[in-house]
Structure formats: structure tokens, C-alpha cells
Amino acid sequence: MHFCLTRLVRVSRSFIVAAGLLAVIISTGCGSSNWSASQRQTPPSVAQAAVAVAAGASTPQVLLFVGSGTSSGAVTATKTILGNLKLTYATATSSQLNGMSESAMKAYKLFLMPGGNAITISQNLKSATITNLHNAIVNDGLNYLGICAGGFFAGNSGIYNYLDLTPTGVWFNYYADEFKGIYKEAVEVKDSTGTQLDQYWENGPQFTGWGKIVGKYPDGTPAIVEGNSGKGWVILSGVHPEAPASWRTGMTFTTSVAVDNAYAETLVTAALNGTSLPHY
Question: Which one of 22, 33, 174, 264 has the fewest CB atoms closer than 10 angstroms to its CB?
């Protein structure tokens, strides 16, 4: 399985968040990694893209992170969405992203962080790399889409080195069902127009404290949010609209895979173009 951050107790300035959990880090699942699909074309790595750009080609539109801590299943599902949209993209492993300068990062329009384990992601990126990525977004206008672990990674851990794209250092907690012992399920997400979609959720965050709410969980907490982080446009999703059918085993959805995947395309397109979605 792939991972979507951690189950933890966090001491924040003077109080305990998520009381009752062990004060240790325990990895948790976020999706399924046993699904694969053929791609229209193998995307270039950032190194290959750089060579092509030097030879006169255009920089791909999207930089997709595929490094340590990401799930192969989440990466594959995300590639499928990018392929459906016919977007040009390059992939970056941890070492490749560590080798990129801020100026190289900002040449892309969108940085996409898929599901995985945000702690592992951060531990395999240099502090300077995270600073460069933060600055490329906040100072240079690189847009960011974070899905599940990518949403956690956009916040402020207080323990680990995350992007901290919120101006007040907001830490994102889990959606409440995590604390009921539910770690994956079909969860209903409702937008400001009243449209409701069943989405695949597994150990994902809710985003209280930052951004405009695009979609809400059943308890009213933010499942999908958007907003500016400096010059960059940021969309964060605690659910997996890109999830393929194989992730749904043992669950009941009222929304089809095709409809959910179409919504994933909507999120990618809005993040790429800096477009605001209907919000509360």
C-alpha cells in the first residue's frame, strides 16, 4: 500500500493535538499500490527535460514528484490523469529534486505532489531543496497541487521540514474518521453548489485553518481547499479523486470511477492555470 503521512501526537507550542494517540510516529496507509496502467508515453525525468529544453524544446507544464515516500500506485494513477489531459510533464525523484535550483523549479507551471508518506518525503529531501521549492511557489509563482500526503506536506509539521505554504504556519490534522479507527473508506465530499461525490479516502487530512473551502467532509471540515501562497496558487485535497477502480475493493460508492477521475482532472486543470473553483 502507499502511505499518507502519519498517525501521531503533536505537541504544538503548549498543547497536545490528537490526544490519546501514542507519542511516536506510526506509518499509515493511503490507497493501493497494486494498480498499473500503460501510459501514452513515458514522461522524461527532469534531467532529460533539461537536456531537451537546452536543445530548444519547451519546459513541460507539470513537474510530478515520484521520489522516496510517494506511492507507486498514487504516482501511476496521477500519471493517468495527466495523460488524459494531454499535459506535458516531467518526473523528479528525491535525488533529482535535490539537484534542482529554485530557478529550475520555477520554469514549470505546476508542482504536483501525489499520495504517499509526507514524513518519508521530507526526510529524503534536503532542507535547501524544500526551501527552494517553497520559494519557487511563494516568491516565483509556481503553482502546487497536493493530494493526501501532498496536502499534509504543504502545511507546517512542527517536527519535520514541510513546505509550510500557509502564512500562519497551520498544521493539518486528519479527517475525524481516522480517530474512529477508520483508515480507508468511501467518503462523501460536498461542494458549495450542493453537488456530492463519493471519493476514496485513506488516512487523509482535513484543512481547517487555511484557504477557501472547495469541498467539505460529512462533518463539515474542509476536504479540499484552495488559495494563494504568495504568488503561487495552491490546491490541496485530502481525498483521492484519481483513484482507480481497484482501490475501491470492499467499499460502496455512489459515484463512478469516471466521474471521480473527471473531478481529479478538474483539480489538476485548476491548479495548473491558477483558477479558482466554486467555494464556500
Answer: 22
Please, what's the b/e burial string for 17-35 (b: 16 or more CB within 10 A of its CB; e: otherwise)?
A: eeeebeeeeeebbbbbbeb
pLDDT tens digits along 113-128: 999 999 999 999 999 9
Q: Is the pLDDT of residue 12 over 80?
A: no
- Residue 272 near residue 226 (C-beta atoms within 8 A): no
The candidate with the shortest Cα–Cα distance to 104, out of 55, 64, 49, is 49
CB 241 within 8 A of CB 199: yes
CATH number of 3-273: 3.40.50.880
Band the pLDDT of 49: cuts 50, 70, 90.
Answer: confident
The C-alpha angle with vertex 49 and arms to 47 and 52, in degrees rounded to 5, equals 115
Average pLDDT over residues 45-59: 86
Cell triple for 75: 504516482
Mean pLDDT of the region 90-98: 98
C-alpha cell at 42: 513515458
**How far apart, in Å, are the Cα atoms of 105 and each of 71, 142, 146?**
22, 8, 16
Mean pLDDT lowest for which of 8-12, 57-61, 133-137? 8-12
- Rounded to the nearest 5°, which phi and psi values hold at 213? -85, 120
